[in-house]
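Exercise (ungraded).
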Amino acid sequence: MNLNRIMAILERDMRKFFRSPALMVSSMVFPMMQLIVLGYAFGGKIKGVKIGVVDKDHSHESREIRQRFDAITAGPETFRATDYNSLSDAVTDLRTGFVRAVVYIPPDYSRRVAHADRPRIAFIEDNTDNFVTSEVLSRMQQLVQDLNQNIADTNQSFLIPPQFTRLNTQIDLQVVEVYPYIEYIKYLLAGSVAMSIFIVAMIGGGIVFIDDKSRGLHEGYLVTPIKKSELILGLISAGALKGLMAGTTITIIGGLIAGIARIWDPVRLIYLMAVLICASVTMISFMFLVMVRVSDPLVPRAIFGVLNTLLFFPSGAIYPIEGFPVWLRWISYIDPFRYTVHALKNLLLKETGFAGIYSDLLILIGFSAALIGACIALFKRQI
Amino acid sequence: MNQVNSNAIEVEALRKQFGEFVAVKDISFTVQEGEIFGLLGPNGAGKTTLIRMLTTLTPPTSGAARVAGHDIVKDPDGVRLSIGVIPQALTSDPELTARENLLIHAKLYGVPAATRNALIVRLLDSVGLLEFADKLVGSFSGGMRRRLEIARGLVHSPKILFLDEPTTGLDPVSRTSVWEMITKLKEAASLTILLTTHYMDEADKLCDRVAIVDHGQLVALDSPTHLKDNIPGTDTVEAEFENAPPDWHAALAQLSEAVSVTERDGVTHISSRSGPLTVGGLMNLARARGVTVRRVTVQSTTLDDVFLFYTGRQLRDEAASGHRYDVSHLYK
């Protein structure tokens, strides 16, 4: 064994490494980014969950509940309460994903409290996200427990025997789950579908695009009368079609494996297609924009992991956005994954229909238009 | 608007600068319709930059050029529709078949669907690739790919064909095949062809006129025959000696019909109006002065001698010296 030859190979590789900023950045930035993003994206305290409150009692007792909600909003910030006049409106918003839970205070709540007649509060929850559900329910149970403690203290001051009061005066929190139990595999499915589109975008829009460019294949097209907008739109259309094929395959196969009910429902399939098309166009456009001025074939390979971490984990695919710190929530706002995952979860887990996805579709369409415009503006038609 | 123009290409003081580096220095020339025009020069001379400007791939820094009557800056689409381009790199898609490559380009040029398939078959046949029409281009040899790209460049029946070093990297058989094809094309389709090359024999064999380009400048332009006739001497005598006295070169310059004497790498080059007469005199002189002649050859003047005459260097020196020109500016 010759040490000089080993050292020669070592020297060669180190020289190449130090001359490749993409590799250096990737090898150092990627683990750091994973540490920060994953570290904050998992297990954070759930905050800012939107819940609807339907107070049909309008009494001193019901207002006390409302005040306790406000105290939670101001304190631990677990949820933010929005008032609804009718239960049906609140449940509609619950089913379309605008609120995560509805607290219903019935018209006879105060009367039952006064008469020690088993007062009840209904807690109707969107149980598609177990992380959010358990946190909000736990906070709600704590709230009811505090109310009951108040009632017990009051009864004690009136010297009412506890064996008489305990059963009838205690407020009962009746929990209603809107959906059947959601296993984690179902929860994760939307993220996997989005990931499949991202991988197609990364390979087609990133690696293959730059490889073709570096092999000189683009020069063969640039000498034709093709306009840069035509070239970009052609490349994006091809990427989007491939993304749609991957996304559809994973949705169907993943849906069957995860046991998604009524996966073949034609109306839902149409909505799913709409989401997958918009998501594919957005992600491939995003990738082209990142790569539009890149010519080094190492770059897309080097930043694959960085982009994956930066886009996938803040999307809410594997942990709810309500558990993120503020800065990570801001990243998620400009992350096309977020809207893809949200729309797919609404369709696959809640069967919301169009009402649950139209805002996501609009945002994805807006993203696509902006990204395509930027791609066309930045693409260099000349060498 | 169609223009009656006997010049297929007109170049006026065309310049390309990359920062401080001037790749093409105010070059002017015209190419007449129907001729094969060669840009001859070593790697890094500016040939590819010049061809990229003329094919609208690179914007010029200054100057003007019209290709098929279209201004390269003001009407790039007019230029692109009139020309076929075979770039230096092999740009056919290796993951597509030969037929698919031509089909995509026919669509890009708007060739009508009704004539597309027949045209592709005819083009593939003309470049001898019809039997490989449905094979993936990735399995082709370099020569086959180059022929396919020539066919691709003709898919929209252009008036002018640009070939950037069409035989670089090809084996001798493939080179000959490409040469034959270029000659055939010129005769059959009345095409104007502009090609760049650093092969003297290629320029000599194919081109009606040759422009010698060096360091971004055009140093000579004429037909190969005139270029050779215009330098002093028609033959070159190359010889190697032993025991040559100090005044040996001066003595050689006095030989019959000798025009000039130079030496490179131990080889003496005598430019002569008559090689055989000079060699006869040289042998007598060597015997008389006790100089041993180790080797002597006579060859007719080539474009290499023309290049040497105008630039002071031989094209083959560029390769032999191992010098590499930095062409990274071309990709910025």
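Further reading is listed at the end of the chapter. For now, observe: Strands of chain A lie at 49-55, 79-84, 101-105, 120-125, 172-177. Chain A has a mean pLDDT of 88.
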